[in-house]
Amino acid sequence: MATRNPNEKPAPEGAAPATHTLHQVRAAQLRARALRWAIGKSALGTVFLVGALAYALGPERNLPSSRLWMALLVVLSTFNVGLGLRTFSRVRRRARRFWLVATVLWGLLVTGLLRILLAR
């Protein structure tokens, strides 16, 4: 808790006291740091998705090693997007249960997209 300085002049009548204590400022800093981390994880998941799509559109997409790399990149993409969504939901304190559903949907959509691209 913040303590008042005994040498400080009293605030004029009607003026609100300082509402941001050190604890609140630190909490805001931690939330901002967590949001930056979540944005980074989501971006990394998108990069892994682009890598999987590059393998799916490549000339040697039907090789077993290419399919293995695509599967690995899809798992990494889903994992990183899930971490980002979980952090977003915890920081914003909204829809705490829906991050898991959104992560599963992401994985299913990515898998479906790769199946469509590999079928052609």
3D architecture notes:
The structure is a single chain. The chain has about 120 residues and is mainly α. The protein has one domain. The protein is built from three helices and no strands. It has helices at about 20-55, 65-90, 100-120. α1 runs parallel beside α3 and α2 packs antiparallel against α3. The chain is rod-shaped. The mean pLDDT is about 85.
Form type: rod-shaped
User: What pattern of helices and strands is seen along the backbone?
Assistant: HHH
Strand content: under 5%
By DSSP, the count of extended strands is: 0
Would you tell me the structural class of the helices and strands?
A: mainly alpha
End-to-end distance? 64 Å
Which regions are unreliable across 5 or more consecutive residues at pLDDT < 50? none
